[in-house]
DNA sequence: AGAAGGACCAGTGGTCCGTA
DNA sequence: AGAAGGACCAGTGGTCCGTA
């Protein structure tokens, strides 16, 4: 039985491919299935490399176009970026905290991270209400439109790349809070960084999917707070790869050991 | 009580706006609500006019890129474009036919139109099955991907603008086949063209929506064959406008005549 | 004049990679 | 080295308008 896709998570960077190529990939433990994905990825990268370097557009002034709509009430309940007006700092990085623990220093904790997901949900509900009033198409997910709305409403600390990056961590928090809490305590104790915690969140999620017929989409959709988030690509790929591994294991145990039972 | 939005359907081209501007608009019967939409539309048109004329790219040869995948079984059950190989004609135009009636001459009938919707559904199901097998995102609606798949599978007579154009006609056929059949017979008897029939399909649909709390999205979603189609913009707008009219009528009858009953 | 559909365009989902 | 997020890009939903 080859290394399964989950174990491959801890092997990133060990492939023959340049390290950069394998980032966020599911790993090659599954064999042919993942070669296809990896090949598509390579082609994409190549296309990109044919183009010039990224344009850099900086505008240090305020965007006056919608300044009037800004809402300066900062209901950022994490440590945020402090009170510096007009400094436009980044948010403080996350650290692994236990449930209930407040991050000290220029850091934000994981309860704060999960709180951001709840805030996005509130913004979605507002966007939905406006759409319904106007008789317009009503989003069922947290879309670009919702992120734009959040920004206009003053929640400049919410952005799409960040929220998408940690969706599966929030999923575990929603689907099995006990497991999520345990994982946080364990990773904190080991002194791991946020990236390691984030990686570690995949495994219990795939285990949940295994118990529910591998249908990660319906698992997301069945949970009221989770259903508004797109299933992350990598989580979907992991579930698929593991389902194939499980099926292969089952069928080989039938053809090898199963004979004794069947006849 | 001003002309309601549905009656306004038969008034297209009577507005003070240039005729072209009002095409596919809901009508101005509703007042302020529709002024906003019309204004947005005008701005859009203006933006477009600032740009140059459309580029014209013609390639009269075959697109060899995916010729190998072509499927020459023509299961077009309508009159289609006949057997001319490599002629690349358009489909014959639709005419208003009664249920069961086959169009004669270079025309296609409405049963054939509805059959195209069923074919799209079959193509969607195939795309969904492939996506599930591969563990990829699985579309729930007839998307660009499905139209592309249909074309590759040889159904070159299916295209997005056509299918979107008549979605609400198919909706009526799904939701109230009796009413749909009656409308077809009536419009045929009056010698109306397809455009007139298409316009006439809106009214009974809005009446259905009225009976179901004006929620056209949930009406579509509740029907297994209809749920795979996006609700057409104009139908959504008509339902919204009529809901507002109905609410206004109800509230004015409360404030005017309702007094007698309430006190 | 009525109709079919190639082609366009604004804004999407997805995430890379220059930045701090 | 680890992380936050501006910015990019391929492919979408929507439908106009040059064409037959």
Automatic annotation (TrEMBL), chains A, B:
Locations listed in the record: Nucleus
Biased composition range(s): Basic and acidic residues: 56-65
Biased composition (Basic residues): 45-55
Gene Ontology BP term (one): regulation of DNA-templated transcription
Major site of localization recorded for this protein: nucleus
Region (Disordered): 1-32, 45-93
Biased composition (Acidic residues): 66-76
Highest taxon in the source lineage: Eukaryota
Domain Floricaula/leafy DNA-binding C-terminal as annotated: residue spans: 81-247
Swiss-Prot/TrEMBL keywords: Activator, Developmental protein, DNA-binding, Nucleus, Transcription, Transcription regulation
One function term, GO molecular function aspect: DNA binding
Keyword check for DNA damage: no
One cellular component (GO) term of this entry: nucleus
Function: Probable transcription factor.
Family per similarity comment: Belongs to the FLO/LFY family.
Protein name: Floricaula/leafy-like transcription factor
Species the sequence originates in: Rhamnella rubrinervis
